[in-house]
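#lab-general

N.A. 3:47 PM
ok so I finally got the sequence cleaned up, no stray characters, all 118 residues accounted for. can someone with queue access submit it? mine expired

B.Y. 3:52 PM
send it over

N.A. 3:53 PM
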Amino acid sequence: MAATGYVWEGTTDLILQVRVQPRASRNEWVGLQEDRFRVRITAPPVDGQANMHLRAFLADLFGVAKSQVTLLAGEKGRDKRWRIIAPEQLPPGIESDCSRYTIRRKPNATTRSCKVAP
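B.Y. 4:20 PM
back already:
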């Protein structure tokens, strides 16, 4: 994994390195720290609640269904690796590497939309 915290796999899949902070006061995409992205979530790390909550948060952040977000590694730890299939939005710190995508900035938004170019 690159020092950027993410790598594009194929033309549409994003592999993301995340360090999660459970039991935070709010859900938040903190950004890149060292070689992974830091994310704060409100759910406790009990019985997989934090993973389910983080999956839903990432799905919303990247504009995809929860079924397009898969935990690849780190089920029981804070450091996790996720696959995001065909993200529609990219949060700060992640750039599109796919020539099939065009990035459109949304007014007054911190994310960028990725739409397949015609």
